[in-house]
Amino acid sequence: MRKINKILVANRGEIALRVMRSAKEMGISTVAIYSEADRNALHVRYADEAVCVGGPKSNESYLRGDVIIDVCKRLNVDAIHPGYGFLSENANFARQVKEAGLIFIGPSPEAIELMGSKLAAKAAVAKYKIPMVPGTEEAITDVEEAKEIASKVGFPILIKASAGGGGKGMRVVDSVDVFEEQMKLAVSEATSAFGDGSVFIEKYIGSPRHIEIQVLGDTHGNIVHLFERECSIQRRHQKVIEEAPSAVLTPGLRDEMGRCAVNVAKACDYVGAGTVEFLVDENLNFYFLEMNTRLQVEHPVTEQITGLDLVKEQIHIAEGKPLGFRQEDLTINGHALELRVYAEDPMNNFLPDIGRLETYVRPQGLGVRVDDGFEQGMDIPIYYDPMIAKLVTFGKDRQEAIEKMLRAIEEYKITGIETTLPFGTFVLQHEAFVSGNFDTKFIERYFSPSVLEPKPTEDTEEIAAVLAAILLGNNKPKVTATTTETQNGTASNWRKNRVK
Ligand code: MV4
């Protein structure tokens, strides 16, 4: 047991604020670090102390592990929370933090390293009989041997980089004829991207769902799972909408996947909050993919349905406290959705749209949570991830969470930049999403910019009729809408399908 009195948050934006809020509630003082581009950022103002650690580019500031550790020593910091991204899954940084006598709020460097290698992770979990996609257990080196394995597994297959993750370094191979060239490309890509050319083969699951399980492990060997998050609505490996629980898991399957996730965590003596990723096929077979050794962006949906504060849990665990609950104490309450609001233009291939937040008005009310790091008038810096907010809604069931999300998107007023808010409305109103019948191909299958064009409503038709009548010289058109109708709200239909 070692009490934490001061935390440095080695991150920026919404997650830095998110972490500091929990620290504050626990009576822990907070230190922010910031880059020259973030001088006026909210996380800097929120912290008890703040230190500029370098230039605007991440590798000049938020990735400067050495500088960050120096700040900790200077300011008497006890522990570092890395957030997500940046240094959060850097085993060397975790090791240096430890060696400096500081607490890293996260798993051991060994666990980070092990799970950072997909092949090592698969080997480590093998003894627990976790379902895995058929394929090779070791890196493939010999092309002829690899071709044989691929043919046995059956095409299409996927070549994956062991050091990859989040979709980086993957290649689908449809037939044995193109295997050799694809393998060579995969190896050279992996070498240049990760400095490790190890690749392996898996059977390609065509249209999987991406379902992940949140786990928590303490330093006393207790590990529990906090149920699943459905993360299939993603675009080019960037998640857009997440929810908990998943609309397709039965209680039995949830238990089974939860037990597997706990075993994955056991296989690497996991301490802290982690996420075990699975692919789920159309017959609800599930396969272990990889483990993320950090607090994830989408953790709020799990917080909403479990009533737990994951950051507080992380801090308690880092202090050496045992978990305050057992698996059987945990239940799912209600349903939560998260929409990631990106400064991207969905009408223009989701190109980042940076600039000033001319108007920025958050939605409010029961069951609405906004995790963000901006205020009206602020500029979105070009140097970092374009996510400006996470809009989370929570209701008694999926239907209510969806209704609240649609209402919250309507209330959210952002001008000055384009955002993915209208795209969220499209997804939430789509029959496939509403019915729960979707997978990772949702966006590819159903989205094109034209679906965001305003649809004609009864009002627009009426206005068109009036205009036509005027243009045709009939100055007294018979208008059917009465004042009463306008006052009781039908006139606002005009705005329902507009694009913000
Ligand atoms: C797969 C797969 C199909 N078959 N593995 C992409 C991210 C990385 N974590 C693993 N990924 C995939 N692995 C096999 N054997 C399809 C994907 C995949 C995917 C997975 C989760 C969420 C979105 C995805 C989008 C495209 C491909």
Task: Give your account of this protein's structure.
The protein has 500 residues and is an alpha+beta fold. The chain has four domains: 100 residues, Rossmann fold, CATH 3.40.50; 70 residues, ATP-grasp fold, A domain (Dna Ligase, domain 1, 2-Layer Sandwich), CATH 3.30.1490.20; 244 residues, D-amino Acid Aminotransferase, Chain A, domain 1 (2-Layer Sandwich); 42 residues, no CATH class. The protein has 18 helices and 20 strands. The strands form five sheets. It has an eight-stranded antiparallel beta sheet with strand order 13-12-9-10-11-14-19-18. Strands 3-2-1-4-5 form a five-stranded parallel beta sheet. The longest helix is centred in the middle third of the chain and has 17 residues. The termini are far apart. 44% of the residues are buried. The C terminus is likely disordered. Ligand MV4 binds next to strand 6, strand 8, strand 12 and strand 13.
Oligomer: single chain
Number of helices: 18
| List of distinct ligands in this structure | ligand MV4
Largest sheet: 8 strands, antiparallel
CATH architectural designation of the largest domain? 2-Layer Sandwich
> How many domains in all?
4
Q: Assign a percent range to the helix content.
A: 25-40%
Mean pLDDT: 92
**Distance between the first and last residues' Cα:** 51 Å
CATH superfamily of the largest domain: ATP-grasp fold, B domain
Into which percentage range does the β-strand content fall?
15-25%
